Amino acid sequence: NSRSCECGHSLFEFHHWGFSPTHHPCPGEASVSFRGRSLKGKQSSLPKGYVGLVLEETALLLASKEREVSVKSTFDSLTVWNLERAPTNSDEILMALAWPAIAQGIHAPVTDEE
């Protein structure tokens, strides 16, 4: 009993996890059922100039204490999920994604016109 969920360019198989995706009428919003619990999602783009990385840990060398990772793929948007309610702009992850634009505005040079 497996279900497929398309995410970007990859296809993930969910075996025995109980995901039941449903179509949501609002663009950028989604809902699924996970083990009988309702999850609400909202698509969010990463800030301009940022890119997300999917990393894969390479095999550890016994003599090395440092971990090594390689880039498996990249993404420019993600879905933020909440239990029972849709994410809002007051959710921490969405506020964090808005911070680079706020920081740029704070640190931008002030002109005489302003």
UniProtKB/TrEMBL annotation:
Pfam families: RNase_H2_suC (PF08615)
Origin: domain of life: Eukaryota
GO annotation terms (biological process): RNA catabolic process
Gene3D superfamilies associated with the record: 2.40.128.680
GO CC entries: ribonuclease H2 complex
InterPro entries: RNase_H2_subunit_C, RNase_H2_suC
Name this polypeptide is given: Ribonuclease H2 subunit C
